[in-house]
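Q: A reviewer asked whether we had any structural model of the full assembly, not just the individual parts. We don't, so I'm hoping you can provide one. Inputs are below.
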Amino acid sequence: MQINILPEELPRCWYNILPDLPQPLPEVKGDLSVAAKILVGECVNQEFSNQRWIAIPEELWLNFQKSGRPRPLFRATNLEKALKLPPGIELYCKGEFQSPTGSHKVNTALTQAFFAKKEGKKRLVTETGAGQWGSALAYAASLMELDCTIYWVRAVYNWKKSRRYLMKFFGAKVFASPSKNTEVGRNLLKENPSHPGSLGIAISESIEDVLSHPDTVYCLGSVLNCVLLHQTIIGLEAKAQLQKINRYPDVIISCVGGGSNFGGLALPFFGDLFREGKKIKFVAAQSEGAANLKGEYRYNFADYAGLAPQFKMYTLGHQTKLPPIKGDGLRYHGCSPIISLLRHLGLIEVKTYPTDEKYVFEKARLFLRTEGWLLAPESAYSAAAAIDEAERAKEAGEKKIILFNCSGHGFMDMEGYHQVLRL
Amino acid sequence: MQINILPEELPRCWYNILPDLPQPLPEVKGDLSVAAKILVGECVNQEFSNQRWIAIPEELWLNFQKSGRPRPLFRATNLEKALKLPPGIELYCKGEFQSPTGSHKVNTALTQAFFAKKEGKKRLVTETGAGQWGSALAYAASLMELDCTIYWVRAVYNWKKSRRYLMKFFGAKVFASPSKNTEVGRNLLKENPSHPGSLGIAISESIEDVLSHPDTVYCLGSVLNCVLLHQTIIGLEAKAQLQKINRYPDVIISCVGGGSNFGGLALPFFGDLFREGKKIKFVAAQSEGAANLKGEYRYNFADYAGLAPQFKMYTLGHQTKLPPIKGDGLRYHGCSPIISLLRHLGLIEVKTYPTDEKYVFEKARLFLRTEGWLLAPESAYSAAAAIDEAERAKEAGEKKIILFNCSGHGFMDMEGYHQVLRL
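A: Here is a predicted structure for the entire assembly that you could use as a starting point for your response.
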């Protein structure tokens, strides 16, 4: 079964959780003047806004439609059958995988590119880990007729050829990071000419690039309040879709790296929790190798070199080496300040899965064979946690409406699945 | 802009053009008892049905929803702008690429698997060229809990690793064709142990496999009347979508190999032409290297070995070697009898493009950079023909509503694009 609303019913506002948080978000530490200089102006305004509903400009709203929004909500009836779930336990999957570049990242990419263009910028710069964010920004830049440069963690750049071609097909310039373009990059290459890189290093390179070029702006694919704000379109759509069939979720689940796809789905429902006292269980699915929500809650840099300001967040430390996983998008040392605060308040359960990824990929296989959708490795964590939650509810004899986010597709990740599952 | 209907508005019937054709479809020649034995029974009934509207069974209709139907119709406003089209020339793209396996093929795969299961079959067998059809059948078999065996043209099998993994991830058994499983295959391998294969050979292997195994049924991804029937859901959806904005197409365009995606979009509109005298121009986009609609209109075998019956169709000859192209899905010697008859009646214009594919891939690049959707190599031909038609109309000062089918996505075809465009 599919549940959807019409394109003309697409939400017209984002939901900003800041005014509804039970306590203020801890302040950012450090020199914000740099951030203000390199980021899209409108995004900086949104970052600290106290306005609950922020209107989506009409032209951008039409671009969301162009990107395929609203995206369907699927009731996973075949999966329910395979799990022998009793009536009353229902699984709903939000289909963010139906995206032009394969993930939810386009929601904020289109937004940042739109405002950058409006502010007279000519060029977007960013870093990417898994490659989903880089592709999304390349897409958005292309639609808005802007130039785009991407610093891509070398270890991933080397093997994800298809995604590299995709970014270039969109017209983006793509560099393996560390690169020769920046001071940070050149220093690291001196130590090790085939340095594998990290997301933190690539962020440092991006910031240095933006600071040394005119009309250029830095775009960020996760962590920031404004990025989570842009992603709330996911949760707002899902809420409207569930309303059509008179359902409201008891459990909301998604994978968490920087926190943007989780936040996008969950924040509008957190709003209901804070404003209307709704009871909802929130589950964040993570890799044991990058379980930043099980780290320390403290001030930490967002990037490797410490060029970015410090956020109060759950972190594993900004220079900690994380083991490689196929779900690269979950491989980041810190979690978004908003999600971190919600976790700190005891409102988010964290479920972690082994670094060899066999367990989560087997769940992705079950989801594929029953529902037919090929998940991104990151989304395999969401499906695994949703399945685990359903089985827990079944054992406990509880009724549960479970909503989970499938943030991306895996058409460009088959090699990763093969390496783990030997297809 | 996106135009869509709700899942609950998904058409409930397929449109069968047979009773509306201005002259009867030439009869199939040869022993039909074999075909009747190997095909899904309900498909054989549909093949010769004279019923105009054929109801889609409820359970299958829900599976269509599960596969993401209805799929959006996009007005390609950015592309229109890039082409500097005057008001009155509008481009509408049907988004079949939003499919679980990447193409429109799932529409008939789900249908054949559904009826096979109903008829007590346990195993589906087929051949595949580009790999889209094989993936679609693997998907459908998995959803219906049936076994699936796929004979894949070796030349393509060897380099499309990701798609091979995908079929196996769904649980299908996949063999490079010619294979050791069949007499036909073994004979060809004796001549040449690394025989590159062809679609015709793979069809022969599939038929032999089915004939020698119980509870097994042969599924075909194109050419047959019933396959085109199943695909009419595309055109019926598109018509309902265009109605919502008070539009009716002047020109309908799609790429043609066996003819199923073209037929799926076009046949419901041909119905309007025959029954209501609507004036519509139909354009089939093909490769110069496989322009079967520019071949001879005569009886010919559908397969290489001549095991299948003979159809009256436009053909290049069933043992003719066709040059390799990235749009493998268009590389078949003959065209579906229905499309062939419509062509014979002078109702379809054929537009061919050079075998090096540079021209069509450049149009796919333009479509990607303006609209953001990554087309399958086959769909690049549709986009090219739509763009050419729009430019022709512009020069002629005509108003035109142009509807074209984008039958698949290219996430698993980036290597092909790279080889031609050097990304």
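A: Points you may want to mention in the reply: Chain B touches chain A through 51 residues (CB under 8 Å). Residues 68-102+225-421 of chain B form a domain with the Rossmann fold fold (CATH 3.40.50.1100).
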